[in-house]
Every structure is written in structure tokens, then in C-alpha cells.
């Protein structure tokens, strides 16, 4: 029985994975509703910074595994977008500006002092995936970019009203990504549809890889939620490890 | 100012890290109180299996990075304990027996069909740590064994009464580890006290590494808790990704 999807059907199934995008995570739903307090926003920004600094390493791993010059020439833009160049500051610096806009110091952010273990494990899983798997699979894992413009627009639209205490310079990162992400996704989606479109098994593999990346993003927010929010487990107050012990030392254990 | 700890003080600080051991995690507290339902126990056993099968790979990474024959000769016992040999079934098989005792099929367990992403990310972080860091650091990361006998004894003592539906053959794993863990910890602790005992900086490093491993165990149970328990976030019911979407396919994406 042939169940190979047409190119359109395959793309549609990839896009349908958006149902599990972290925009639907309770933490992000509450962020969009404007009910997060300052500390919750700050811890989210500080933790998401670890993801931001991992992205160029993830993309460099893809370059490092890819023997096709034409593809590297397209993909390298992502590293430059994030790291910046002589003329542009880049996405990592824009994220630090967001951190400043929410009241963190530069050192609060770059020291990773607020980094939550569950966030680190999820982000590292993504970088290690790109290092250890064929470059086509790592390209496919980037496709959560399909869903990113929506969440960026949400923030640009709702934050000035919902979080008036956040300086608007903080929104530059999201505005910048609104321009970059759609351009990036064209290359990633086109490579994925071609490479994984050949057999039913490859198509399923691509859907699983995209699920993995959705899981990375979701697990990050789970960890941030557990660390910063009022959680009840079976009716009882959740006490996290960091509340249990003052013995935790420097979290930058690697 | 000299703040190098004496050998005894150093060991005491390592042992004090037990305050953050996952025995204090709400999920394990409830497990010990006997209030977990069958599904919660099953998902915990199925997920913890992924940790069990990672252990020999972690220990093999240590052997692979260690140039000292005498140390390898001691450490290799761990792999044999877990994988078994001609005469003994080994810890992985004992864990599968636990799975059968709680009502799972062998395939439920070995297929990893219940594996939760956050658990996978945490366990993989541990294996990758052992692969990528010096073997002395990986040895140090094993020292949560210092705290394990207590949790094993808890289960052996409380389960027959609290969970009469679990066949007692399921307890073999814990009984086995009660014998092995204290023996294993002698080598790990002795190597750690010697190697990391030399400078204040190394002592702090050892404490951070042990914290990392505590974080791995804690993050695993966080993910299991979020997947299986009734969670309220700021008063509202938490909806996990797997409840949001039926689009999740095979989770064994690597």
C-alpha cells in the first residue's frame, strides 16, 4: 500500500505540527495574556538566552557536516545573523538588549547565572542532534521557524500594552526575526521537502524530527514554568530543587 | 586566604549535596507515601528504563576516556553489573522485570514508547557529559550513588504494603543495587577525593559536577510528574504538549 504523501500533503503535515508549538504552552499563553510578573519575564529572557547562544553553534555543526558548498553558502547567513558582523550587531546582542529592557544587567544574562538545568538539557539536546546526525536531519529540525512569526507578532503587538514597563528597544529582536525567519525557512523547507519527500519512511522521519524540535522548545518552557510559577501537584504545592537546598553552587558546570 | 577543605570536610560537603537528591522530589515523596496510581508507577518505570540503558554507555565512555588500566579494571564491573554476563541477568533485565511486575509488557518497556522528551534530554545530558568531559569528572558525576541506598531501602520497605499489586519480583533490582552501589561508591568517592581534593577550585568543581548529576535526576522526575500528574499552574490546569496534539508520532527520533 502506497502512502507516500504528495509534496503539498507532506508540507501540510509538517505545518500541522504547529499544534504542538510552544505558543500553546501555558507559560506562553499567560505571557501573551499579560499576566506574567517581572521576575517571570526576566527568568524567561535569561534562560532563552542560552538557546540564542546555542543557535550559531548548532548552525556551525550543520555547516561542518555538509559537504555541499551551495547549501553552506545559504546556511551561513544564519550564523552571521545571530553573531553579527562589522555592520550589524546580530541576534544575540539584540537578545541581550531585550534582557536590559526587562531590567536585567548584561552580566545577569551573559553569566548564565539564572540558567535552569532543564533548559540547558533541552538546548544541548538540540545542539548535539545537529552535531551527531546527518546535516539534512539538522536542517529539518530548524523547521519550527515555520511557526515562529506568529509568536513574534504576538509579542510585538501585545507587549507595549500588556507590559508597559518593558522598554520598546527590547522588541528589536522579534522585529528582526520577523524579517529573517521567513527567508530562512524557505531554504530549510525546500531542502526538507526534497530530501525527505522521497519515501514514506523519510517523510515520517522528517515529521519525527520536527516533533523532536517542538519537544525541545516545550521542555524549555516546562522547566521555566516549574522554576518561576506557583505550581500545585495533585493539590499540593510543588517545591523545586532550588527551593529545597541552598547548596546549589555555580550552575555553569560545563 | 586558604579555604582548601580537608579530606573529611570535602567528603562532608559532597554528602551534604544529598539535600537536593530526587528522594525529596514531590513525585518520589508521593511514591513513598503510596499514593501513586498504577499508570503513574508504570510511566515512571518505563521512563527510568531509559536511564538504566544509558548507564552502561555512560560507563563505557568513562573507560574509553581513561588511560589507566587499574581504574578501568575496577570500573568495568559496572557495565557487567548492568548488562549481565553468562551467569547473571544484570540490572537492565532486572529493571525490565520491575516493568513486568507493574503490569507493563516487555515491549512497552524496550520500545521506549512512553519515553518523555524531558527525560530523554536529561539522560542524554548525562551520557554526553561522560563522553565529552575528562574521565575524572564523569567518575565524580556518578556520586549520586552516595544517596541511592536510602531510596532503594524506602522502596523495598514500603512497596509491599503500599503497592500490594506490584509483584515482589519487581523489587529485585533495588535489592541488587543495595549490594552493588556501596561497593561502586567506594571507588568513585576515593578517586574523587584524591583528584579533586588538591585545590579549592577543583573541590568546587567536584561539588558543581555532583550538582549537575542531581539536576539530571531531578529534571527526569519533573518531566514524569508533568506528564502523569494533575498539575495546576497559577491556579489553572496545566495542559501538556502530548494532550494538546494527537500529531505526536514515534518518539524514538534518534
Write down the CATH topology of chain A: Heme Oxygenase, Chain A
Give the N-to-C terminal Cα separation of chain A: 50 Å
Structural class of the helices, strands and pairings of chain A?
A: mainly alpha
Classify the oligomer: homodimer
Largest sheet of chain A: 2 strands, antiparallel
DSSP summary: helix tally of chain A? 12
Query: How much is the average pLDDT of chain A?
Result: 94
Q: Any overview of this molecule?
A:
Two copies of one chain form a homodimer. The first copy, chain A, has twelve helices and two strands, in the order αααααααααααββα. Chain A is mainly alpha-helical. Chain A has a single domain (7-226), classed as Heme oxygenase-like (Heme Oxygenase, Chain A, Up-down Bundle). In chain A, strands 1-2 form a two-stranded antiparallel ribbon. In chain A, β1 (231-233) and β2 form a beta hairpin. In chain A, α3 (38-65) packs parallel to α7, α3 (38-65) packs antiparallel against α11 and α8 (135-141) crosses α10 (172-196). The radius of gyration of chain A is 19 Å and the shape is globular. Chain A starts with 6 loop residues before the first helix and ends in a 10-residue tail after the last helix. The model of chain A is unreliable at 247-254 (pLDDT under 50). At the A-B interface, α2, α7, α11 and β1 of A face α2, α7, α11 and β1 of B. β1 of chain A pairs antiparallel with β1 (231-233) of chain B, so a sheet runs across the interface.
Amino acid at each position: 500500500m502506497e502512502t507516500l504523501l504528495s509534496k503539498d500533503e507532506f508540507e501540510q503535515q509538517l505545518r500541522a505540527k504547529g499544534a504542538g508549538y510552544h505558543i500553546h504552552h501555558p507559560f506562553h499563553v499567560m505571557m501573551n495574556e499579560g499576566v506574567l510578573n517581572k521576575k517571570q519575564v526576566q527568568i524567561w529572557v535569561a534562560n532563552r538566552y542560552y538557546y540564542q547562544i546555542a543557535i550559531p553553534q548548532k548552525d556551525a555543526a550543520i555547516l561542518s557536516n555538509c559537504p555541499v558548498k551551495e547549501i553552506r553558502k545559504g546556511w551561513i547567513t544564519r550564523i552571521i545573523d545571530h553573531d553579527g558582523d562589522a555592520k550589524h550587531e546580530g541576534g544575540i546582542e539584540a537578545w541581550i538588549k531585550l534582557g536590559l529592557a526587562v531590567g536585567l544587567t548584561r552580566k545577569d544574562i551573559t553569566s548564565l547565572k539564572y540558567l535552569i538545568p532543564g533548559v540547558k538539557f533541552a538546548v544541548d539536546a538540540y545542539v548535539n542532534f545537529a552535531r551527531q546526525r546527518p546535516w539534512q536531519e539538522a536542517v529539518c529540525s530548524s523547521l519550527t521557524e515555520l511557526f515562529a512569526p506568529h509568536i513574534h507578532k504576538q509579542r510585538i503587538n501585545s507587549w507595549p500594552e500588556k507590559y508597559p514597563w518593558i522598554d520598546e528597544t527590547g522588541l528589536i529582536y522579534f522585529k528582526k526575526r520577523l524579517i529573517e525567519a521567513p527567508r530562512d525557512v524557505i531554504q530549510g523547507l525546500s531542502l526538507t521537502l526534497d530530501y525527505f519527500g522521497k519515501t514514506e519512511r523519510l517523510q515520517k522521519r522528517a515529521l519525527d524530527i520536527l516533533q523532536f524540535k517542538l519537544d525541545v522548545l516545550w521542555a524549555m518552557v516546562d522547566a521555566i514554568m516549574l522554576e518561576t510559577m506557583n505550581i500545585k501537584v495533585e493539590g499540593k504545592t510543588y517545591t523545586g530543587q532550588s527551593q529545597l537546598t541552598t547548596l546549589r553552587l555555580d550552575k555553569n558546570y560545563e
